[in-house]
User: Fold these one by one.
Assistant:
Number 1:
Amino acid sequence: MKIIPIQALENNYSYILIDEKTKEAAVIDPMEPIKILNVISQTGAKLSSVFTTHHHWDHAGGNIELVGKYFLSKKPGLAVYGADARIPEINYVCKDREEFKLGSLDITPLHTPCHTKGHVCYYVVDPATNEKAVFTGDTLFVAGIGKFFEGDARDMYRILFHVINKLPDDTWIYCGHEYTRDNLKFALTIEPQNEALQAKWAWCQDKPITVPSTIGQEKMYNPFLRVNEQSLQMVVGKSDPVEVLHSLREMKNNFRLM
């Protein structure tokens, strides 16, 4: 499989996912359709699907224009996947872990309700190469997580440790925003002696695009995936990992004000 990150708006990511065997393509959260269609035309791939992670306008807002352009071009309609009725143009409702195909690629939607109640992450496996990727929208970022707009810390803990953390360590993570430097800056205030964190901070300084990372990498420096570590628990003065997660999220919410 081939994955092309597309920077959009101020700090968003859309992605083009291509099955190199069949040249079938999907776009994930296509916020700037013209830019995306221009890139797809250069690849020779055929766009068939839209994978929408959640209904927020900066992820789903491009669906209407993209579907409209395909209708006007008299090409076959696009399959718009998601799990929230608030997603524009949705016509395929994803059930949790109900697999489907993009060409020869195996796609597994993972329901991850917290940032929004209908949030979905899309786990992709290429059977030919065993390469794995997950599109995490606003659930998991490089060195961070999304805000709990329609859920709470217990919901996010379940997602992080019973869904995402169960994926193989070599799974590539493609998130919905370029928040890496801000996330790492916050993480360094929590674990300043973490060598993996220090190395990631040094690495990202001259990188305009910092995706992807991997599940295994995130376990080493993402504080929200480290709430079971005693060092993190000592920072917030709590031992219950759900309470630690809640405290860290509150600290991150206020971090920009510091």
Note: The CA atoms of residues 137 and 176 lie 4 Å apart.
Number 2:
Amino acid sequence: MAEEDQKQPEAGQEQEPAAQEAQEPVQTEGEEQTPESPEETIARLEEAVSTAHDEALRAQAEAQNAIRRAEQDVEKARKFALERFCNELLPVVDNLERALEAAEGDEEILKPIAEGVELTLKSFLDALQKFSIEPVSPQGEPFDPQLHQAMTMVENGEVEPNTVIAVMQKGYTLNGRLVRPAMVMVSKSPA
């Protein structure tokens, strides 16, 4: 134990010079650290500036893209916020149209009622049109699966195949986007 005490320095004593040399970086005789020439320094700094400039341009473009996407999202939200509300109102329009069909006839008692329902339907459709809700009634037009829903196909030699021959329920668009497809009967060539 006495030998171990002699090998370890005490807390207040300095380390031997050999221990200090181990802590310093070792240079070999062939390696000399030469200072960087001014041209090398300028080239290195120009490269760093170029890199920083590119990163700044990318960050600016990314920020502009984020702003543009946010504006588009807000515009879409504003444009199609009425979609659910529109879907709730469309059955009311359908019922008013059915009431008008049921009131057709020569009975004098029904004429004032039919006239009132017709005026109500007209004002309702005008209100929908103010908010860019447009009807899709494709009677006689070619069948378009993006706007129409075929309920049945009927053989008909009088019109070309895939023509809408009857509209069972009108469809509607909101700002050009389909809210409800038109339910239609489509012609097909006779067998």
Note: The helical segments are 2-7, 17-23, 38-80, 83-102, 110-130.
